[in-house]
Each structure stands twice: as C-alpha cells, then as structure tokens.
Specification:
Layout lengths: L9 H10 L7 H27 L6 H26 L1 H17 L3 H42 L4 H5 L16 H53 L5 H6 L4 H49 L4 H40 L8 H15 L5 E2 L4 E2 L2 H38 L1
Antiparallel strand pairs: 1-2
Helix pairs in contact: 1-7, 2-3, 2-7, 3-7, 3-9, 4-9, 5-7, 5-10, 7-9, 7-10, 9-10, 9-11, 9-12, 10-11, 10-12
Length: 411
C-alpha cells in the first residue's frame, strides 16, 4: 500500500517486519520471523532462570536485576504473541488509517493529517534513538569492562546476569558469549516493545488528526455562518450549513471509531505493561538507594530506569493528547453561534454538541486506568513509595542483624 511505503510509516513497517507482526507481509515470512524471535527469547529466559536456580549463594542485587531482565524479555514475548494473535485487528487498524487518508480531498485537511503523522514519526524516532543509545552505553559500561578485566571463574558465575554454566560454549569466551547473548536478546525484546509503541503512537496521532480535521470543518462552518447577511426570514430558512455540519459529524464518528479500535488492540497489553513498569521502577528505586557504593549496579539501574519511564511516558502522553483533542472539539462546538442559524441547522449543531459532551479516552485494561499525564505521575509516585518502603524494611533488617551480632559478642 502506497501510504505505508511512505516516510510516515517507514519505521512502523520495518520494526514490525523484523518481529513478524506486519499484517501485509507474507504468511511464511511472518511465521519465520516470529518463530525466530520467540525461540531466541525463550532460550535466553531458560538460561537466566536455570542460572538463578543453580546458584548456591544469591546476591540480592544481581538476583533482582536478573529477574527484571527475565520479565522484560518474557513481557516482550507476551506482547509479540498478543500482537501476532491480533493480526486481523492490527490490519483493520492500518486499513482504517489508509481509508481515512484516501477519503480526504481537501489540501488543507491533508496537510493537517500529514503534520500529525510527521509528529508521530518524530516521536517514534526519538524513542528508538534514546532507548538504543541508553542500552549501548549500559552494555559498554557493564560488559566491556568485564571482558577486558580478567576475573576469576567464581566472580564470573556470581555476577550479573546469572548465566547457566552448561550453556557456555567455550569457557575462555564466557564474557563475550554472555555480553553478545544479552545484547542481542534485549535488542530483540526491545523491538517487540517498539513494534507496539510505534503502532500505538501513529494510531493515536491519526485519531488526533481526525479530531483536528473535524474541528477545522466546524470552524469553517462558523466562519460561513458569520458571513451570512441575509434578512432574518432567509436566515431562518437557510440550510446551506447542513452539508458542512454533516461532514463534521462523519469525521468525528471516524475519530471515535479509531479510539475504540485502539482500545481493543492495546487495552489489555498496556495494563500488563503498567503492572510490570510499577514493579521494575519499584525495584529500581530500591536499588538506587541501596547500592550507592557499587558503581556498576548504580549506573546499570540509572540507565535502565529512564528507558522504562520514557516508554511509560509516551503511552500516557498519547492518551493525554486524545483527551486534549476531545476537549478542543468540545470547546469549538460550544462556541459556535448557533442562534445565527436556521431551526433545521440547529438540530445538527445540537447533535455535534451532544456528541462532544462525552469525552473519549484511552485506558489500560477495561476502564481501570485512564491513560494521561496524571496517571503517569501516579505510577511514578506509587513506584517511588513502594521502593522506599522496601528500602526501609531492608534497613530495619540490617539493624536487627547488627544488634544480634552485638549481643552475641557481649555474651
């Protein structure tokens, strides 16, 4: 399709094709790409879980970091699986975008839609660059130092991540294998997350563009209404605005339909993502305060937490944009000079006002969390509270251990 080969959806197409999720690629190509991703992630997760189980002495920080990266990869696989099973819904979503694009004939409306899609592409590009850069810096700091610093076999087996020893191909290249395996699989899992976020951001931008086009049509109708200089009797009988108002209603209906499709595709996915992000940020907050003396662990957490926060921010920021687009449409509808129109035209004005009275919004789950900046702040606040609570219990345990040692010394 021509639209999806253009600059607006180039990132979406390439990322989804790597994961086998692009609805317009061949069935065989989609199955092969998805099987490669699923098998690679599953093997890596098995290696980490077996590595944790095989450890005789577990370090709390390394264990938590290994569990986080395990859940990160599992959730990426879950996201891909959900997307793979929703091929018809995703295809329907992209087809709605293409249909709405082809229906537009006015150049100004095309420019509105084009500007929103370019803005979505910019956000997708920034997200990819930031996440990739942060992870590359993290890999260089954590693995390159270990590769060029000769450590004992005991230190290797008890450092992050816990890696199942029988999976090592050649002992002398242990650090190289771990670094390469972790880097490739985390990038693979990251593409799974990006496949969801780029589709989501582009879809939300498209819906917001439809709202803006509906508002643009309504403003043009208002301008036309202001230019009416007919006598009172002719104004009462004038119905020239009705076709324009019908087009406003049609465009508003397309935007509402787009929001409902986005909810069906991403609702459950983002609920699971939100729960994972709260857990990961909670553990990250705990580790930032607990392991200040361990510079490697501190930098590792400091680099990974912003990736989670940026991803979570754009999920909620897009939901905030939908709310803002609905509010702008509502304000424009209620500012129309309805009293200058005929009685028949007022019926359609009233229909627009009633339709915009109920604001649409995106949710994570079924009406559980409304995606917005307020929800993002609530998640960060909740994670910080849980993290400090964990830190308090750990400090209390340390004080109890210190008191126990002191009592035994006195005895």
């Amino acid at each position: 399709m021509d639209l999806f080969d253009s600059q607006y959806f180039k990132i979406n197409k390439r990322v989804l094709m790597i994961c086998g999720l692009w609805p317009y690629q061949s069935i065989l190509g989609r199955r092969i790409a998805f099987a490669m991703l699923a098998n690679s992630i599953f093997l890596f997760v098995f290696t980490l879980i077996a590595g944790v189980i095989s450890q005789s002495q577990l370090d709390i920080i390394n264990t938590e970091d290994t569990i986080i990266i395990t859940f990160f990869c599992l959730l990426g696989l879950l996201k891909c699986t959900m997307f793979y099973n929703q091929q018809n819904k995703i295809k329907n979503l992209y087809e709605c975008i293409a249909t709405d694009w082809n229906k537009l004939t006015d150049s100004s409306e095309h420019n509105i839609l084009r500007s929103f899609l370019l803005d979505g592409r910019k956000i997708n590009f920034i997200t990819m660059v930031f996440c990739s850069s942060a992870f590359m810096i993290y890999s260089c700091i954590d693995f390159l130092l270990r590769i060029f610093n000769k450590e004992s076999e005991y230190q290797r087996q008890h450092s992050f991540p816990y890696y199942f020893k029988p999976m090592v191909i050649y002992e002398k290249l242990y650090d190289w294998q771990v670094a390469l395996h972790v880097t490739v699989i985390v990038i693979y899992s990251g593409l799974a997350y990006l496949s969801a976020i780029v589709t989501y951001i582009s879809s939300v931008k498209h819906v917001c563009a439809l709202y803006e086009i509906a508002r643009h049509r309504l403003q043009n109708a208002i301008i036309a209404c202001d230019k009416i200089n007919h006598p009172l009797q002719k104004c009462i009988e004038d119905i020239s605005l009705i076709p324009k108002l019908i087009k406003v209603i049609e465009m508003h209906e397309q935007a509402v339909r787009g929001i409902r499709i986005i909810k069906k595709v991403f609702g459950a996915d983002f609920f699971v993502l939100t729960v994972f992000c709260i857990s990961a940020l909670t553990i990250g907050t705990f580790e930032l305060n607990f392991c200040r003396a361990d510079i490697h662990s501190f930098i590792r957490v400091l680099l990974l937490m912003p990736i989670i926060m940026i991803y979570l921010f754009y999920v909620n920021y897009s939901g905030e944009q939908v709310i803002q687009a609905c509010d702008d449409m509502y304000t424009t509808a209620y500012n129309i000079d309805w009293y200058k129109t005929s009685s028949k035209t007022r019926i359609f004005v009233l229909m627009i006002m009633r339709r915009t009275l109920k604001s649409e919004y995106l949710t994570a789950g079924t009406m559980i969390m409304i995606l917005s900046i307020k929800n993002f702040a609530t998640i960060i606040k909740t994670a910080w509270s849980f993290g400090t609570l964990l830190l308090t219990t750990q400090k209390h345990r340390k004080n109890e251990d210190a008191n126990f040692v002191a009592e035994n010394t006195l005895i």
